[in-house]
Design a protein that fits this description.
By secondary structure, the chain is of the alpha+beta class. It is 58% helix and 14% strand.
Length: 264
């Protein structure tokens, strides 16, 4: 009886071993085929990205369309995904390349197909652009590198969704002493007082200032309140020996210099 049970157990064991062998063979075949399928799909994606890379490296500033810039950046962050559809929907949602790069990080991270890693990949480009522009604007006297200053202010402020007031404090040679964020909100006496602006300039040892703020609406055209407040600050500066060189208003549609308009 025991002998029969033993033979029965061996038969059971043999069948189990055979089943395991067949399963292992099937799994091996499956995994050998899977890379081929993945490689075939991956080859198309890698070939497309190689073409983008070549155009980027060989071409000029316009070598890639705006959505292709986003697509390529996202491909570096999420290499196993087709990032073209994500790039197109980002451009459609935020309006432009600059709009995407300056979008709120949380909004980017929660966009379909995105996450924190891909949002960070886009944000780091915007940060690098700001750092480069700031370096160009601040390594020489500000008035001698006016376009570099405008470029920096545009990159830094044109796409803000809140109105922000800044004061650039300059020394006697018009070199930047301090770029100060004064307040978020409209340029009126509730947010900024002329005497306080000039007192701060004196505390920093500044000889001159440039007022800067943005219009989230996109249009940089100055309001009556902008002009009135600017002239109050300029008058307070004249009384205490601080020159107000200009008031620059930045928006997505460009910038306006109140001095160039003859409004100071």
């Amino acid at each position: 009886m025991a002998h029969a049970c033993t033979r029965h157990g061996l038969r059971q064991s043999g069948r189990t071993a055979g089943e395991r062998g067949a399963r292992a063979l099937a799994e091996r075949n499956l995994f050998e085929e899977a890379p081929a399928r993945f490689t075939s799909a991956g080859t198309d994606a890698s070939g497309h990205r190689a073409r983008l890379r070549k155009r980027l490296l060989d071409g000029g500033a316009e070598a890639l369309a705006d959505y292709e810039v986003i697509e390529y950046l996202l491909a570096l962050a999420i290499p196993r995904r087709d990032t073209k559809p994500i790039a197109r929907t980002l451009i459609a949602r935020f309006g432009s390349l600059a709009g995407v790069l300056n979008a709120d990080p949380a909004a980017l991270a929660h966009h379909p197909g995105m996450g924190e890693t891909s949002a960070a990949a886009l944000r780091i480009v915007a940060l690098a652009a700001r750092r480069m522009a700031r370096s160009e604007a601040t390594t020489r006297p500000v008035l001698a590198s006016w376009q570099a200053l405008i470029d920096y202010l545009t990159i830094d402020m044109a796409h803000l969704t809140v109105e922000r007031v800044r004061v650039l404090h300059l020394d006697l040679k018009n070199r930047l002493i301090r770029d100060e964020h004064v307040t978020d909100g409209s340029l009126d006496e509730a947010a900024i007082h002329p005497r306080e602006v000039i007192r701060r300039a004196l505390d920093l040892g500044a000889a001159a200032i440039i007022l800067v703020h943005n219009h989230p609406s996109g249009s940089p055209e100055p309001s009556r309140a902008d002009i009135q407040m600017t002239n109050r600050i300029a008058e307070a500066g004249r009384l205490l020996g601080i020159v107000v060189h200009d008031h620059v208003i930045v928006g997505r549609e460009g910038h306006v210099s109140l001095k160039a308009r003859g409004l100071i």
